[in-house]
Amino acid sequence: MIQYFFKNIYRNILRDKTFSAINFINLVIGFSTFILFSAVVTHELNYDRFNEKYDRIYRVQTRQEDSYPTNYCTYSPAAFRDHLMADLPEVEQALLMREVSGQFFTLPAGEQLYQKYGYWSENSFFDIFTITLIEGNKQNVLTEPNTIALSETLAGKLFPEGNAMGKQVTIGKRFPFIVTAVYEDIPENSFLRASYLISMESYESVSGKRGYRDDWTYIDNDNFVLLKEGSDSKQVDAKIKDAFKEVKNYEKSTPYLHPLSKLHTSPNNQSDLLIGLSILSLAAVLVLILSCVNYVNLSLANSSQRSKEIGIKKVVGFSRKALAGQFMAETIMMTSLATLIGILVAQISFPLLNHILQKNFEFSVLENGQLLLIVASVSLLAGVLSGLYPSVILSGYNPVKVLKGKIFDNIGKSFSVKKALVVTQYSISLFMLIVSFMLYRQVNFLLNKDLGFDNKNILFSEINVQKEVDFEIVKNRMLQYPEIAEVSFSS
Could you say which of 78, 98, 336, 419 is the most buried, measured as most Cβ atoms within 10 Å of its Cβ? Predict the structure, then answer.
């Protein structure tokens, strides 16, 4: 029986190639779009989930109520590490980190290699986050001054011959560090994005800032904690809420724990990215619904082509249930095949999507169990829902009227449903056109608004100094270059 169904489906596809191609392409477009959008949403929502202790990692942030509106600062003072978090019974590990501004590494041949993302960090980084070491021992990677850990990619650029352990790298042409570890590249969907980690023990000597660990007034560090299993972050919040009570000019500031799960989607308690992902998810669902509605409408429009087949099968003894099963099987087969082709189309189109979004993450439905389950479930659901109405209508034709050519005598019974499907189809299309136009206008405004100055010819650079520098001297030296028209600075 199953073999007969498949053979019959194959014959029906060949009988009307144009109709089958249009309906199939409609489904492929719907599924490939759904898969692409779903891949982006799952990628963004799965930031940092590679960490084994994901649910117990928090960043200590600062709520500043003396500003309007209230400022949810993602940073906190360095003093939190030793004078606030380390002795709490709920805290298993504490970590002090600090972003390193973009730096130049000296290559073996003397060229300069710019690296944008790096951190000053304590060694507890490797106890809190799940980072795999290729070389080195995680117990003592960042425990000594003037030591550095490199990502696998950066180590390959600095030491093409391999074996970076124990070798020296120079940053900014004047700061030498000894490589104590090489770690696997941190996944793209992580807030860290660190291509190198410098020991926190080196920060004081390099920056010239003394006693920074006791400072409560510079809110410019990253403090992370790993809570013990079963600990409640709200209880910790209650214990640390008065930390600034005795700090002059900071009395209205309050520290709080922000979970790792929200560092990407809402780092400062704003839901902008979540709103964007919700819109993208809605668009994915609407495109798929539109494809399914199109499939139903096209199937009903083509019902006259199947009328004789239905009439003859009913005359020779086919039950309505058997015919409904046949049409349902056809639809599920079509949606399943469209899903497979959609996966292939999405895979081919992904580099283009990466370029549009300026991302660099890899995509494979087959290697992403969560996304594969979503796509398979939606494919089956879409197949059942798309085939339900046509199978009920087509299998219910009266065989006598069908063979006499009076198939449309009772069409009024299903007219209201057809009308509802058409209205749904046009409503979704119109809604998506309006939203797309609004988003286009907004993005176009952001990209092309006249700012009042020519930002294409302005360059920015950070200058790290250990003592006071007369900016006029720096300015006059830079103005000696004919390419530079004017120089300004800020602190």
Answer: 78
Query: What rounded mean pLDDT belongs to the chain?
Result: 83
Angstrom distance (rounded) from CA 13 to CA 311? 19
- Distance between CA atoms of residues 143 and 359, nearest Å: 34
DSSP 136: S
Please state, in angstroms and rounded to a whole number, the distance separating the CA atoms of residues 305 and 12: 10
- What pLDDT score does 306 carry? 59
Query: How would DSSP label each residue in 258-302?
Result: EEGGGTTT-TTS--HHHHHHHHHHHHHHHHHHHHHHHHHHHHHHT
What pLDDT score does 228 carry? 94
Beta strands 175-183 and 168-171, pairing class: antiparallel
- Taking phi first (over 0 means left), then psi (-120 to 50 degrees means alpha), and beta for anything else, what does residue 27 get? alpha
Which of these, 280, 301, 284, 283, lies nearest to 422 by C-alpha position?
301
Q: Report how far apart, in Å, the C-alpha atoms of 127 and of each of 51, 52, 53, 227, 482 are.
A: 11, 11, 10, 12, 51
In which element (H, E) is residue 96 found? strand 91-100
Cβ burial of 18 (10 Å; 0-12, 13-18, 19+) is: exposed
Between 166 and 23, where is the model more confident? 166
What is d(CA 182, CA 410) in angstroms, rounded to the nearest whole number?
A: 75
**Residue 476 class from Cβ within 10 Å (0-12 exposed, 13-18 middle, 19+ buried)?**
exposed
Q: 390 pLDDT exceeds 70?
A: no
pTM score, whole prediction: 0.78
Low-confidence winner among 172-181, 208-217, 233-242, 394-403 (lowest mean pLDDT): 394-403
